[in-house]
């Protein structure tokens, strides 16, 4: 798969191409260009370091949305074994935006809940661009209850711009479906691990994100609203998305500092799309460690810790009280 650079990665891409051309010219014409190649390699490494060590929030959002980024089924293929997809919510339909099923994580049987996007237009139409309908969340809850019945942990892989806001979703009560998931996941009597692997958009992400451990990939984001929508509301113009991304504190580092997430999973330099196997190894290791740690906690204590974890989110401080009579 040929790397498709983002706009801010263009200097890296251009240097990479020049380096490749120089090496090809050296091989084809049997010319010693080692000094020039080494100089260009050093310049490429320095450019990569400068760009990737100073990414803005908006640039990380762009990486999280990269069309070549590994999606949930790519991680299932590399991190899990014996994947068996289960279909349908037993009420309306099967939602292909949320593949769910049973799998083995190492030696541990688990329920896996995911969001799935598409690589091209045809796949995106089938997957509804990763935006689930109410039946997707009800299917997820059906499988989580199955996991509770058999005492096996639940793992959710989050990657969605948000739940689908169309008329059909409203008719079938998308808000109610997500709200029920929030309530039921809070009291589910098995360990729950959530990992944000790309986009974590609004209630669509939180609908499978109530967990004992919340992990996030280094360049993923998790936010109550997309930067574009936030920009449209605050500035009445979507062109301020970069400013909105900074203000939303949606990057992995910000979220860890705010204790919204518990662990950052490292990505290859440049993003997860640069090395599927390496990032999958990191994700698999983090998931196995989280499951092992949480599984040691007695269920009553686990439920109390889960409750307290989410009760701590959102610290509010009041401003000075204005004395109307003084004016």
Question: What keyword list fits this structure?
Answer:
327 residues; alpha/beta; 2-enoyl-CoA Hydratase, Chain A, domain 1; 2 domains; eight-stranded mixed beta sheet; 14 helices; 8 strands; 48% helix; disordered C terminus
> Helix coverage percent of residues?
40-55%
The residue-averaged pLDDT reads 89
Q: Rounded to an integer, what's the Rg over CA atoms?
A: 22 Å
CATH-assigned fold name of the largest domain? 2-enoyl-CoA Hydratase, Chain A, domain 1
Terminal Cα separation, in Å? Answer: 68 Å
Number of strands: 8
Tally of contiguous helical segments = 14
Determine the CATH superfamily of the largest domain: 2-enoyl-CoA Hydratase, Chain A, domain 1
- Main sheet overview: 8 strands, mixed
Q: Could you explain how this protein is built, in words?
A:
- Helix 3 packs across helix 11 and helix 6 (134-150) packs parallel to helix 8.
- This protein starts with 9 loop residues before the first helix and ends in a 16-residue tail after the last helix.
- The protein folds into 2 domains: 9-54; 66-311, 2-enoyl-CoA Hydratase, Chain A, domain 1.
- The protein has 327 residues and is an alpha/beta fold.
- Strands 1, 2, 3, 4, 5, 6, 7 and 8 form an 8-stranded mixed β-sheet that branches.
- It has helices spanning 10-29, 34-52, 57-64, 72-79, 121-127, 134-150, 167-171, 174-186, 202-206, 227-234, 241-248, 252-257, 276-295, 299-311, and strands at residues 81-86, 100-105, 108-114, 154-160, 192-201, 213-217, 221-223, 263-265.
- It is globular.
- The model is unreliable at 322-327 (pLDDT under 50).
């Amino acid at each position: 798969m040929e790397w498709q650079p983002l706009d801010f990665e263009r200097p890296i891409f251009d240097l990479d191409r020049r380096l490749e051309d120089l090496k090809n010219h050296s091989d084809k014409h049997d010319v010693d260009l080692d000094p020039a190649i080494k100089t260009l390699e050093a310049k490429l490494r320095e450019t990569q370091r400068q760009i990737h060590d100073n990414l803005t929030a908006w640039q990380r959002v762009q990486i999280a949305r990269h069309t070549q980024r590994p999606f949930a089924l790519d991680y299932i293929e590399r991190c899990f074994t014996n994947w068996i997809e289960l279909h349908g919510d037993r009420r309306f339909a099967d939602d292909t935006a949320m593949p769910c099923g049973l799998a083995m994580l190492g030696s541990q049987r688990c329920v896996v809940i995911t969001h799935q996007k598409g690589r091209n237009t045809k796949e995106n139409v089938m997957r509804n661009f990763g935006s689930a309908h109410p039946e997707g969340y009800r299917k997820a809850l059906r499988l989580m209850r199955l996991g509770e019945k058999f005492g096996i942990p639940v793992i959710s892989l989050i990657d969605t711009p948000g739940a689908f806001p169309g008329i059909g979703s409203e008719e079938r009560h998308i808000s109610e479906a997500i709200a029920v998931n929030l309530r039921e996941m809070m009291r589910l009597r098995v360990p729950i691990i959530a990992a944000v692997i790309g986009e974590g958009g609004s209630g669509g992400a939180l609908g499978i994100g109530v967990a004992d451990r919340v992990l996030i990939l280094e360049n993923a984001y998790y936010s109550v609203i997309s930067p574009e929508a936030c920009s449209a509301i605050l500035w009445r113009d979507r062109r301020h998305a970069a400013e909105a991304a900074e203000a939303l504190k949606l990057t992995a580092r910000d979220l860890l500092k705010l204790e919204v997430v518990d662990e950052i999973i490292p990505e290859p330099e440049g993003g997860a799309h640069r090395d599927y196997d390496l990032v999958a190894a990191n994700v698999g290791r983090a998931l196995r460690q989280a499951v092992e740690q949480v599984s040691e906690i007695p269920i009553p204590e686990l439920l109390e810790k889960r409750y307290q974890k989410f009760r701590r989110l959102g610290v509010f401080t009041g401003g000075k009280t204005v004395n109307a009579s003084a004016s």
